[in-house]
Amino acid sequence: MKMENMLLMPSIALPTGPYDWHPERHPRALFEARLARFRGVMAARGVTHAVVHGNEFDHAGLAWVTHFTPKLGPAYALISGASKPRLHFAGGPGMKPSAQRLTWIEDVSALRGIGADIGRWLNDLGVGADQARIGLYEGAAMRRRDWGAVNEAGGRGGGVALDAAVDVVRAQASARDKEHAARAGRILELAVETMRGLARPGVDLRAAAIEMERAVYAAGAQDVRVRMGRRPGGLPVTLPDEPLLMTGPTAVAIAVRHSGAWAETHIVLALGR
Asked: How distant, in Å, are the alpha carbons of 21, 188, 192 from that of 219?
């Protein structure tokens, strides 16, 4: 398979694009500090155990807590007040070595079904389902059946939403966080300039996106996500495998990651020439 085809195929999982982070930029101490802040929110909300969700296009919260970026489907971090966290990723067991390289969490395994995985997790901790008060972070983007499974595991009252409280903590960015976010923003500007420079009637937008990806990876991006759509008022969708010719205004969503920090934008490519 040619490399240019691998860059955009949604069926490719962890091998898609660079997936290592640099320990000197995101040391274990930073991970442990964020985990402690997250646990502080749990304690303040009376939560004993928490589930953090992320998927391939909506994972800012999961990446903040764990440094893990899903590339195939949903992923979940399971966090208690004292024991080591656990992370489940979408994919087969053979992907574990690659997934392990995306996070400081040591207990990493393939996702079987979040409801069953929570049950096994609590059992391994020696905690009965009636003893756990489960919190949920970033649940809005979850698949409906998974959301139901987590809330069922949360007991009679369902899972406790942690979003507002954790978002306040996340907003207290360090100088390191701000530096990485600024670099991600500059790379995103390069992505936008590249796409706009390539846009013209009849151009293959898929090929243009591949060229853009090459440019941002060369500029230091760790990951890039692209979606496009031409339906008025519709949301951009994952690019198809076949050519996508530019025949009219096209909405484009681009997200770029650098050192764990994501920057994203939506633009419209017009037929200006």
From this structure: 15, 10, 13
Rounded distance between C-alpha atoms, residue 126 and residue 130, angstroms: 12
Q: Among 219, 207, 206, 211, which Cα is nearest to 194's? A: 211
The residue to which tokens 């591949």 are assigned: 210
Cα separation of 65 and 86, whole Å? 12
CB atoms within 10 A of CB 193: 12
> Which domains are assigned to the chain?
28-170 (3.40.350.10), 174-269 (3.90.230.10)
The amino acid at 260: G
Phi, psi of 160 (to 5 degrees): -90, 125
**pLDDT, tens digit, 9 for 90 and up, residues 103-142:** 889 999 999 999 999 999 999 999 887 788 899 999 888 8
Instruction: Provide the β-strand partners of residue 53.
Output: 76
10-24, 61-75, 147-161, 223-237: which is most confident: 61-75
* Geometric angle at alpha carbon 208, from 188 and 14, rounded to 5°: 65
Handedness of CA 101, 17, 76, 22 (dihedral sign): positive
Tokens of 193: 């300039």
Summarised one tens digit per residue, pLDDT across range 60-79 is 889 889 988 887 889 999 99
Q: Between 205 and 241, whose confidence is greater?
A: 205
Higher pLDDT, 57 or 73: 73
pTM listed for this prediction: 0.72
- Is beta strand 75-80 parallel, antiparallel or unpaired with respect to 86-89? antiparallel
Q: How many CB atoms lie within 10 A of CB 124?
A: 12
CA distances for 2 relative to 6, 9, 210, angstroms: 7, 11, 12
Complete DSSP assignment for 168-205:
HHHTS--HHHHHHHHHHHHHHHHHHHHHHHH--TT-BH
49-54/107-110 β-pairing: unpaired
